[in-house]
Amino acid sequence: MASLIGSAVRRKEDPRLLTGNGCFTDDIKLTGMVHAAFLRSPHAHARIIRVDTEKARSLPGVTAVFTGLDLAGKMKAVPAMWFLPGCDLKPKDRPALATDKVRYAGEAVAVVIAENRYVARDALDLIEVDYEVLPAVVSQELAMQDDAALLHDDVPNNLALLWKAGEIPDQVFADAEVVVKQRLYNQRVIPSPMETRGAVAQYNPGSGEMTLWCTSQNPHIHRLIYADVLGIPETKLRIIAPDVGGGFGAKIATYTEEAVVACIAREIQKPVKWVEERKEHFMATSHGRDEVLEVELAGTKDGRITALRVTNTANLGAYLSTFGAGCPTIDFGLMVTGAYAIPQAAVVTYGVYTNTTPTDAYRGAGKPEATYQIERAVDLFADKIGMDPVEVRRINLVPNDAFPYNSAMGVTYDSGDYQKALDKALEIFDYAAFREEQKEQRQKGKYLGVGFSTYVELCGFGPSAVAGAIGFQGGVWENSTVRVHPGGTVTVFTGTSPHGQGTATTFCQIVAEKLGVPISDVELVSGDTQSVSMGWGTYGSRATAVGGAAVSLATDRVIEKARKIAAHELETTVDQIEFIAGQFTVKGDLSRSRTIQQIARSANYAWNLPEGVEPALEGQSFFDPSNFVYPFGTHICVVEVDEGTGEVEIRRYIAVDDVGRVINPLLAEGQVHGGIAQGVGQALWEGAVYTEQGQLQSGTFMDYTMPKARFFPPIESAFTETLSPVNPLGAKGIGETGTTAAPPAVVNAVMDALKPFGVAALDMPLTPEKVWRAIRSGRDKE
Amino acid sequence: MIPSTFSYVQAHSVEEAIRLLRDSDGEGKLLAGGHSLVPLLKFRLTTPGTLIDIGEIPELRGVRKEGNRIIIGAMTTYRQVLLDPLVAQHLPVLAEAIGQIGDIQIRNRGTIGGNIAHADPAADLPGVALALDAMLEIQGEDGAELVEADGFFLGPLVTALPETSLLTSVSFLIPPEGARSTYLKYAHPASGYAVVGVCAIAALDPDGVVSTIRVAVNGAGDVAYRARSVEDKLLGHAPTAERIRQAASLAADDGEMGSDQFASEEYRRHLCCVYAQRALESILL
Questions:
Q1: Environment class of A653 (CB within 10 Å of its CB; exposed 0-12, middle 13-18, buried 19+)
Q2: Is the pLDDT of residue A176 over 70?
Q3: CB pairs under 8 A between A and B
Q4: Does the beta carbon of A772 lie under 8 angstroms from any beta carbon of chain B?
Q5: What is the average pLDDT across A734-749?
Q6: pLDDT at A782
C-alpha cells in the first residue's frame, strides 16, 4: 500500500463545501434571533459630542440601540495579547464602542439591534452623531513628529513602542568596502478573505452559558480574551468557529464587534447575529504590513555581506491589535538576515499609533517584510559591486554544515539545504538561456527582467517558553486527542482550528497512515471549545508542524496501548508484536494477528484487558516543540514590462519550496499558488490608500485590486524535502512561503527589467503609472 | 451592502414602463440587467423609491438588420449580442468589445441598453457606439424619436434621456465593405472597467488612402468622445507608420481626461495615445 503521508489525497472537505453544504457563521440561524448593525465613524479623528439614537429606536422593527455609554460596565475594552517586554510598550485597548473620541474612520460608535438586517441597516441612517473633527495623522513618520496630533493623550509622539535588538558600531559601516542604503516602503494591505467577519451569540439566562459562533482562526484564544472582556468564566463561554472562509491572519485578532454581539445577547436575552459587510470589512478588520524600512547593508567588493542594520517604522493603526506589537518586532526583526550568514545585524522598530485601521498579522506577519528588505538589499548590493545576483546569494547563503544555525539575531534555524533549492530552481529556469533572450528582446524594445528570492522564514509557533519570554500572553503548544470507537472508526480532535487549509484532510492522512485504517474512517473535530479541550489556533504556519505533530504523537499513544492489548490477546509479549498497515502480528508467525479494528472493539468492550490497562482506545498529546521551524526555498520571477504603458506581466513564476515533510503535495501546491498570488498581489496591485484626513480611498473592490487568476501564468512549483528535527513529522510550515518570497522576487524582476532606464528602486505596488513614470524619467536622463 | 427600501414593479410593455415612470414622480428607476444599478443600490449611492423592471418586455429584445444598420433591442443581453450571426457578420467590433465586458455571469445578465443608458464613463460601449455612429431610439410620452449617440452622453451617469423616457433600441452603422476595426482596452486591474478604451474603424480606398476612419475613446474621462483630431490627420492619407504615430498623438485632444488614485490625468492622456496607436496599427498596418 502506498503511503498516505505524501499522497495527493483529495480534500475531504470539498464535496461538502462545493455542494453548498458548508456551515459558515452566516448559516447559523436560531429561533428568535435578531440582527446587529454597527454605525461607524466617517471621521478618522474626532471628538464625539452627542449621539442621538431616538429616531433609530422608534423605527418599527428596531429592538434596541446601544451607544458606548450604554455598554459601560457591561463589558470591557478588548485588549491585545502580545505585550512585548523591554520596549516601553503603551498598549491601547479597543473600546467596545467609542465614547469620547473616534480614532479611525470605520470605528464603531453605536449598534442597532433589529428584527432583520434590512431594518438594522436602515436604522443606522437615523442615528445622529455630532462630531468635533480633529486633525488626523495617517503616516507613521509624520505621527512621530512633535507637532503631530495625539491619538492617546498619554502616548507622546504617538510612539507605542521602541524595540531594539542588536547593536553595530557606526565604525563597521564607515570602514566597510561597500555600503548599500535603501529606504523601502512595505505598504499597507487589506486582508480580504472570501468570508468577512461575523458572529452569532446565544445566552442561556438559566445556566449563564454563552455560546458564540464566530469567524475565528483560534477559538480558544477568543474564549480566553472574551471571557475576561465579558466577565464570563471559560467554563461557561463556548466559542465555535464553524466553517471559516479564509482569514489570512485577520481572523486571529479579537475584535470588539463579536464581544459586543455577545454582550447584547446577554442584555436582551435574545440570540444576536452580526455579519460584516464587505464595505465594513475594508475599514473594520485589521490591515497588514505598513512598515517603512530603512536598510543599511555592509559588504566586501567580492560579494560577502558583513553587517546589516534595519530601522522599521511601523504603523500600528489606532489601537494595539491582538498580535500588533509582535509583527514588526519579533516576527520581523529576528528574520532580517534572511537565508544569509551575516555576522552582525541590528534592528530598531518604532511602533506608531495613527488614525488608521489597526494593523495585525497578515499571511507572513513580519517575515514578508523582513524578506523584502534583505532580498531587495542583496540585489542592490549585487548591482553595486557588479556581481550577478545569484552569485551574491551563493556566496552568502548559510552553508549546509552550519545547521542548526545560530543567526546574528539570536535565533536557531533548524535545518536547511539552501543551495539545493536554489540549484533546483535554476535548473527549472535555465538562467543562461534567459539572459540571452533578455539581451535579444531589449534590442527589439521589449523589456524582460528576472528576480530572485532565496528566502527563509520562521514559523511553526513555537516553544511556549519563548512565547513567554517575548511577552505573548499565551502558550503555543498544541493538543490532540485520537479516539478509536468500538466499530473501528476514528475521531481526531485538534486545537489548530482550520479556516480553509484542508486540515481535515492532512490530519486524517496522518492518522489513517499510522493506524492503517481507510482515511474515510477518520474524521476531524475542530473549532469548538467544548469539543476540544485546548489549542492555540491556526496562524504562523503552525498547523501541521505543531498541531499535526500533536496528532501524530496522540496516534502513537493509541498504537502503544493497542499493542499491549494485542499482545495480551495473542498470548505473547509486547516486544514480540509488529504493527504494520493496521495489523498487529506476532513476529515470525503471520497467522497470529489482530486488526486495529478488532483491538478497538476489545479495548472498548473491555471484556478481557491485560492487567493495568484501562478500557477504551484513546490517546492524547500535548506537544510543545523545542524550536520554531524554518522553511526556505528559491523563487524566480520573470516579468515583461510594457514600455508604453508601464504594465508588468508575469511571464514565468518558479517556486522551489522546502517545507520539510510534505504531507499532501496537492494541498501543498495549493498553498504555494495562493501564497504567491497574494505575494504578487502586494508587489504589483494591492495597497490601502488613505487621504491625509484618514479617509480610506481604496475601500471597495472597484479600487482595491485583488490578484486574479488571469493575471498569472501557470506557476511552476517544486519541492525539496529537508526534514525538520523539531517535530516527529519533520514538517515545516507552508502557508506563508508565497507571501514571504514573492514580493521581492517580483520587484527584483521589475528592477532588472528597468535597468536600461537607470531605475534602481520603486516602492510597491508597482502600478503601471509608477513604472511608466520611472521609465520616462530614466529616458529624460539619457 | 444593503439597499434602502424600495418598491418593485414589473412593466410588461414599453407604454406601461413609461406610465410607471411618470407615476413615480421622479422616484422611479428602470431596472434592466441590474449589473450597474444593483451595486449602486447596495452602496446607497442611489435610493430610488421604485424599481421598474423592464426585463419582461419582449419587444425590447432582439437583433435585426435594416438597410445599412443593425438594430439591437435595448434589453438584449451581452451574451445574446455575442452569439448573434448578424453582429458577427456586420459588427465584429461590437462583439469584440462586448467580449471584454465583465465576466460570463455579467454578460449573461447585462444588457446593451442598460450599458448605454447608465453612461458609466468607464463602460466599454459608449465609445463603440460613437465609433459605429449609433442612433438611439428613445420612446417617451409623446412617442418615439431617434437621437445620435454623439451628444447623448453628458457626464458620468448623466445622459440626454428625458426622465420619463425609455431607450428602446440602439442602431449601429455597418462599416463599409472591407473596413477593419478593433476595440482595444486597458482594463483597470481591480474592476475590469476601461481606464482607456479605444475603438477604431478604418477602410482604405483602392489607392491605399484612408477613406473611412472613426476613432472613439471611452474610460479616459467623464464622457466618451470621438477623437476627431486623430481622424482628420488620417483621412485622405496613406496610413504610414509615421502618420499613424502623429495621428495617435492627438488621441487625447478631443476629450477631457479624468484622474483617480489609479491613473492621473497625464497618464490617461498618454494611455489614450498609446492605445490609439496600437489600435490603428493593428487595423492599418
A1: buried
A2: yes
A3: 52
A4: yes
A5: 98
A6: 61
On whether the CB atoms of residues B214 and A730 are closer than 8 A, the answer is no
Q: In chain A, what are the domains?
A: 14-134+194-246+251-284 (3.90.1170.50), 288-461+627-781 (3.30.365.10), 477-623 (3.30.365.10)
Confidence check: pLDDT of A781 > 80: no
B3 in helix, strand or coil? coil
Quick check: A1 pLDDT over 60? no
DSSP labels, A61-96: TEEEEEETTTTTTTSPPBP-SB--TTS-----PBPS
pTM over 0.90? The answer is: yes
Cell triple for residue A197? 467577519
Interface test with B, best of A40, A196, A772, A776 (most B CBs within 10 A): A772
Chain B residues with CB within 8 Å of chain A CB? 1-2, 4-5, 43, 186, 188-191, 193, 260-264, 267, 270-271, 274, 278
What is the rounded CA–CA span in Å between residue B249 and residue B263? Answer: 18
Partner residue facing B190 (CB), from A117, A645, A701: A701
Query: Which chain B residue's Cα is nearest to A278?
Result: B1
Which of B188, B191, B198 is the best residue to mutate to test the A interface, defined by the most A CB atoms within 10 Å of its own CB?
A: B191
CA trace torsion A224, A230, A231, A235 (10° rounding): -50
Q: What is the DSSP letter of B156?
A: T
Residue A82 phi/psi, 5-degree rounding, is: -125, 100
Contact B202, B212 (CB under 8 A): yes
A117 close contact with B: CB closer than 8 A: yes
pLDDT at A780 over 80: no
- ipTM field: 0.95
Query: Average pLDDT for residues A498-524, to the nearest whole number?
Result: 97
Residue located via cell numbers 524582476: A749
Banded pLDDT at A303 (limits 50, 70, 90) = very high
Residues 6+ apart with CB under 8 A from A465: none
Q: What pLDDT does B238 receive?
A: 97
- Under 8 Å between Cβ of A162 and A222: no
Q: Residue A462 — pLDDT band, cuts 50, 70, 90?
A: confident
Residue A728, min C-alpha distance to chain B (Å) = 44
Domains by residue range for chain B, with CATH: 7-53 (3.30.43.10), 58-173 (3.30.465.10), 180-284 (3.30.390.50)
- A275: closest chain B residue by CA: B1
When pLDDT is averaged across residues A687-705 and rounded to a whole number, the result is: 96
C-beta atoms of A772 and B267 within 8 A: yes
Q: Is the per-residue pLDDT at A373 higher than 60?
A: yes
pLDDT tens digits, B65-103: 999 999 999 999 999 999 999 999 999 999 999 999 999
**Residue A598 touches chain B, beta carbons under 8 Å:** no
User: Residue B45, exposed/middle/buried by CB under 10 A (0-12, 13-18, 19+)?
Assistant: exposed
> Out of B1, B264, B278, whose CB is closest to A769?
B264
Nine-digit cell at A208?
Answer: 449563564
What average pLDDT does chain A have? 97
